[in-house]
Amino acid sequence: MKNLLEKAGWAAVGFTGANVLLFGVMFRRPKVHWDQEKYDCAVVCGCRVENDGQPSEVLKTRVEKAVELWKEGRVRYLIMSGAGVYNDYVEAEAMKRYAMELGVPQENILEERRAVSTYHNLLYSGRMMQEYGFQDCVVVTSGWHLRKADHYARQNVERYVMAAAAVPKGEKRLRNIWLHVRTNLHMYLNMWRGYY
Description:
By secondary structure, this protein is an alpha/beta fold.
């Protein structure tokens, strides 16, 4: 019995190790090194809008990071990407309103209003970039979401770099760790489901 449990333990360790290795191969580390000083646009990944139509704290931090890049002259346009996923409020609209409150002119903000997932954020924003003749972008999202967004950016955008938004004020460290784990697990499960 002891021998059988020992073998099962080693099998579990081997299985876990193989899966961690496979994850690392399939989903590389996010591209965060800037190859150039300026990019044509920032693609801002959507997130929950509250039931009163206001952006959630996570969504605010993403918009704030994109606005910061725009004010520094590192991007010319902002593409706000996200549909009405959790309620009737369209994420792109809420993000645009908030960016305008922070000082970005309406003509520098584009809305991508169809995306219902990270995959769609980068698919539809990549198509929008082609329509507008944009060659490159900064993908702005939360730190725990970088690897997932990078995976889809690689498939849909020729030249890009990733930029992490700040952690929302008051967010506990344990929650942030959980969001990293949950997102990576979700990516891995999607790969097995064929959504790679």
